[in-house]
From TrEMBL, chain A:
Keyword Cell membrane: yes
Record's subunit section: The complex comprises the extracytoplasmic solute receptor protein and the two transmembrane proteins.
Domain TRAP C4-dicarboxylate transport system permease DctM subunit: 13-424
Name of the protein: TRAP transporter large permease protein
UniProt-annotated location(s): Cell inner membrane
Transmembrane segments: 5-24, 30-50, 62-81, 101-124, 145-168, 174-199, 220-239, 245-262, 283-309, 315-333, 340-357, 363-388, 400-428
Membrane topology qualifier: Multi-pass membrane protein
Originating gene: dctQ4
Primary role: Part of the tripartite ATP-independent periplasmic (TRAP) transport system.
Signal sequence residues: none
Keywords, ordered alphabetically: Cell inner membrane, Cell membrane, Membrane, Transmembrane, Transmembrane helix, Transport
From TrEMBL, chain C:
Main location: membrane
The name this protein goes by in its record: TRAP transporter small permease protein
Listed GO MF terms: transmembrane transporter activity
Membrane topology: Multi-pass membrane protein
InterPro entries recorded: DctQ
Membrane-spanning residues: 12-30, 50-69, 90-110, 130-153
Ranges of residues in domain Tripartite ATP-independent periplasmic transporters DctQ component: 26-156
Family indicated by similarity: Belongs to the TRAP transporter small permease family.
Subunit structure and binding partners: The complex comprises the extracytoplasmic solute receptor protein and the two transmembrane proteins.
Keyword Cytoplasm: no
Length: 433, 313, 177
């Protein structure tokens, strides 16, 4: 059989298994092995099931993921998220849309010490939602700010998604983290604008709160020293050139662990909870990595990827059309899969295309993470939205999706700007070497 | 017949683009359409450089570019090229190591594969952030571990070997002070952008990196005579010579570009300084000879082969 | 049955605890390496060697709990429109394929470890034998296969007796997103 046909059947089989509820990593690994066997033979194909998991499990690059996961879980367990919320509240709380702005900025701050968007959403779902609802915020605006703010967990470095991308495409994590700075600042700015527009159009959705006395505000800012210390050590250490990314993650774990100990937040139950959170997502990422790698070998051995690259370069369409085409494809796939899955599934085809068009893979990594962030708040599978809905059963899912709209508009504008002006992403990493 | 050739290096990198790809084209042409050697660059069949040999053993790839140093213990006799002050250039080193193989002096793993090429890189020198002129300057410095062969010498100098740093992580490790120096050559310095993070280059041949092009023996045996002839025509000494010359030329060109673009002090040692380093690193040679069966005979044969190759080129 | 299921869950949790304690120790070791390098210019020897072998054990130790709690990313669009019966069937199907994959990996790891032992693979700086560590990782993978077998049995049981037997918690806050 023509290898290209095998590739096509393989893709269809993978989609089919995924739609039948088989986990994405498992589907990719099984189809990858079976497809590889059709082209090369069963012996070599089965051998991939030892060599690829072994490569992933001993990779120092991937080792950063469990460390950042553990750091985020420990930081949340030690109450560092409430500290950062209180601090931003002291700064912005009394302004128009103050609590929603606070939520967004605090999510970005917490994002600087947590690599996961869902964890950020869950954390501020607990910390910020009750606060806003108690002050009479419209549930749509309140949950919109939390869900959209949660995406900052992966957009502000450190980010598990950027690490995953860097491992799968062999780009430098450090470069991705540096490239993410300006896009992350833009994200916060645009979300803040979205809050202002919403509050201006419907003042009742965001009642003002009274300004705290100066003394209390200073005290709240002072209490947040823990988060600031952790963020400065981890990100400051990485950017200033003191630590490698691996070391920063390790040091971050130790500091977060000390906080949890000294604040007496660690009992048996919370310790188990922290471990379960961090380990569950760690194993999940590793299983995705095995699956994606094996599937990509299958695709490359059939020549499927080079076929698509050839077809696109023969068609000689404008590169931007191809880029926007891929983004549309992601948004379309996002209706069926979540966007992380969409990214992992399509990387074997998309990366050669992006490279063939002469685009920078660091830039594409940031674009990809932004698209994943958008996918986290768009229907039908907006994982942040579904999570909030499960935490606050009386807030309807449609209310949340309606509350998301202004933030989504902000996201789409930001995405377009980042695509049209790659320099916004690439200037900093080039400056800093 | 399709032969899958795996390279962990990206398609645009020197060896893959200028040596392996033309080799595949030559073999395909010579086989009169019987062979279709396909290059899978950038790790598209296996991204872990340390697993390339396993790809050939498992039949995932038929041919692979292998750096045995990533899997200490395999193709062990070839580590002789890692010894300091022995390999002066990739050209002479590759010529010499192929002669050794041809004479049947290399055993073990070498007998289990069809070897298309047995080569040496250009010699590595010491690239560093700190100023290193004399062996005493190495005391307390972190050095990227270049493989087990030099560990004894590094220990003897009082330096600290740091393992687990991949070539792409080199620049980050240098700029963060995780290591202050590494044994490398300008080809790698350019590819992995180490130029911006280093300030000194101590220009001495401190050992080369052994490399192999390995083919699955069973696969080779199963080919027709015409296909075998097409492969043989471009393999062995021819391959090793082409590889060595091309490697040296690329390193020389990279050296000019890197030095033009960065502020790097190249330290050219005088005879006294060279002697000091030879003495300080001699322990690695002694250890190597003691650690291998027939160590002294292998060492003498390789030194003689190098001398002969250097004279011929 | 319920007892075996509870026991295997407890086992999975215990392994996670072992794994993540290992991770904490690695973090402490890396941190002291950084401090020693910074303050005294005297870094520890072979930190990366230790990380690369211990990491294999840490990661494989996380897999049983991940499987027991069904924490892998899945798309459940179809189940949302299907009836409970069909949903339970899909659940069992997905658990079966997961079991097949994990069992194949566990099986392949045995020959992988054997080859590591035969070839005498060692770590870079410290020269440690790597096969004992990978044997531990292999053992974890076999336990993972066992846990997944339990998951599969529970899923099949609930397919025939209705979905309520399924007592697994499904807390989803641990996604990497
Ligand atoms: Na983050
Ligand atoms: Na979505």
């Amino acid at each position: 059989m023509d290898p290209l046909i095998i590739a096509l059947i393989g893709c269809a089989a993978m989609m089919g298994l995924i739609l039948l509820h088989v986990p994405i990593g498992i589907s990719m690994a099984l189809v990858g092995v079976a497809g590889f066997a059709q082209v090369v033979g069963w012996g070599p194909a089965i051998s991939l099931l030892a060599s690829e998991p072994a490569s992933a499990m001993s990779s120092l690059d991937l080792a950063v993921i469990p460390l950042f996961m553990l750091m985020g879980s420990l930081a949340a367990a030690s109450g560092l998220a409430s500290d950062v919320y209180d601090m931003t509240n002291a700064l912005f709380g009394h302004r128009r849309g103050g609590l929603a702005t606070t939520t967004v900025v605090a999510s970005a701050g917490f994002g600087a010490i947590c690599g996961s968007g869902v964890a950020t959403t869950a954390t501020f779902g607990r910390v910020a939602m009750p606060e806003m609802l108690a002050r009479g915020y419209h549930p749509g605006l309140a949950s919109g700010a939390v869900a959209a703010g949660g995406t900052l967990g992966i957009i502000v470095p450190p980010s598990a998604m950027m690490i995953l991308y860097s491992v799968l495409t062999e780009q430098s994590v450090l470069q991705l983290f540096t490239a993410a700075i300006i896009p992350a600042l833009l994200a916060v700015l645009f979300y803040a604008i979205a809050v202002q527009v919403t509050a201006w159009r419907n003042p009742e959705a965001a009642p003002r709160s009274e300004k705290l006395p100066f003394k209390d505000r200073m005290a709240a800012i002072g209490r947040a020293w823990g988060v600031i210390l952790l963020a400065v050590v981890v990100l400051g250490g990485i950017y200033s050139g003191i630590f490698t990314v691996n070391e920063a993650a390790a040091v971050g774990v130790v500091i977060a662990f000390l906080f949890a100990l000294l604040r007496r937040r660690l009992n048996r139950a919370t310790f188990l909870q922290v471990m379960a959170e961090a380990s569950g997502s760690t194993a999940m990422i590793y299983i995705m990595v095995f699956g994606a790698t094996i599937f990509s070998y299958f695709i490359s051995v059939t020549g499927g990827a080079s076929f698509i690259v050839g077809a696109i370069s023969d068609a000689s369409v404008h590169p931007l059309i191809v880029i926007f085409g891929i983004l549309l494809l992601y948004i379309f796939l996002g209706a069926f899969f979540d966007e992380v899955a969409a990214m992992v599934i399509t990387l074997p085809f998309v990366i050669p295309v992006i490279q063939g068009l002469g685009y920078d893979l660091v830039w594409w990594g940031i674009i990809n993470v932004v698209v994943i962030g958008i996918g986290m708040i768009t229907p039908p599978i907006g994982i942040n939205v579904m999570l909030l809905n499960s935490m606050y059963r009386d807030v309807k899912i449609t209310t949340i999706y309606r509350g998301i709209v202004p933030f989504l508009v902000a996201d789409l504008v930001r995405l377009t700007i980042l695509v049209l002006f790659p320099a916004l992403t690439l200037w900093l990493p080039r400056m800093l070497g | 017949e399709i032969l899958r050739f795996s390279s962990f290096e990206p398609p645009v990198a020197h060896v893959t683009k200028n040596i392996l790809t033309p080799w595949a084209e030559n073999v395909n042409a010579a086989s009169g359409g019987e062979l279709d050697v396909q290059i899978f660059p950038g790790g598209t069949l296996g991204r872990n450089p340390a697993q390339q040999l396993k790809l050939v053993e498992d039949g995932v790839a038929d041919i692979a570019w292998v750096i045995p140093g990533y899997t200490p213990g395999r193709f062990d006799q070839g580590t002789i090229g890692e010894l300091p002050f022995l390999v002066p250039s990739a050209t002479a080193g590759s010529d010499a190591i192929w002669s050794m193989y041809e004479q049947g002096l290399l055993g073990g793993d070498y007998e289990n594969f069809k070897l298309i090429g047995v080569m040496m890189s250009s010699p590595n020198a010491l690239a560093s952030a700190a100023e290193i002129r004399n062996p005493a300057d190495m005391k307390g410095l972190n050095l990227r571990a270049p493989g087990p062969t030099m560990l004894g010498a590094i220990d003897a100098l009082g330096a600290v070997p740091v393992g687990g740093i991949t070539a792409p992580g080199l620049a980050e490790a240098m700029s963060r002070g995780l290591i202050s120096g590494t044994f490398t050559q300008f080809g790698a310095i350019e590819t992995f952008r180490v130029g911006e993070t280093m300030s000194y280059y101590l220009d001495m041949p401190l050992g080369a990196t052994p490399m192999l092009i390995v083919m699955n023996q069973t696969k080779y045996n199963g080919l027709s005579d015409e296909a075998k002839a097409a492969i043989d025509q471009y393999s062995g000494r021819v391959f090793s010579d082409t590889f060595g010359q091309s490697f040296d030329q690329n390193v020389a060109e990279a050296r000019e570009r890197v030095l033009a673009a960065n502020d790097i002090t190249v330290i050219e040692p005088d005879d006294a300084m060279t002697k000091e380093w030879e003495d300080a690193l001699a322990v690695s040679t002694t250890e190597w000879i003691a650690g291998h069966d027939n160590g002294q005979a292998l060492y003498d044969a390789f030194a003689a082969a190098i001398a002969k190759a250097s004279a011929a080129n | 049955m319920q007892l075996i299921w509870n026991r295997s869950q407890a086992l999975a949790r215990a392994l996670t605890l072992i794994g993540f304690t290992g991770l904490l120790v690695l973090a402490l070791m890396t941190t002291s390496d950084v401090l020693m390098r910074w303050l005294f210019q005297a870094p520890l020897q072979g930190v990366n060697d230790v990380i690369s072998v211990v990491m294999a054990v840490v990661i494989s130790a996380c897999i049983p709990a991940n499987l027991a709690m069904k924490q892998n990313i899945r798309v459940e669009v179809f189940g949302a429109v299907a009836g409970p019966r069909l949903k339970a069937a899909l659940e069992a199907f997905s658990s079966l394929l997961t079991f097949i994959l994990i069992a194949l990996i566990a099986w392949q790891f045995v020959s992988y470890v054997t080859s590591l032992k035969v070839n005498g693979d060692r770590t870079w700086v410290l020269g440690w034998q790597v096969w004992p560590w990978w044997s531990a990782a292999t053992a974890m993978l076999w336990l993972a296969a066992f846990v997944q077998a339990m998951v599969l049995i529970t899923d099949i049981a609930s397919l025939f007796s209705g979905p309520d037997v399924d007592a697994r918690a499904n807390d989803d806050t641990s996604s990497p997103l």
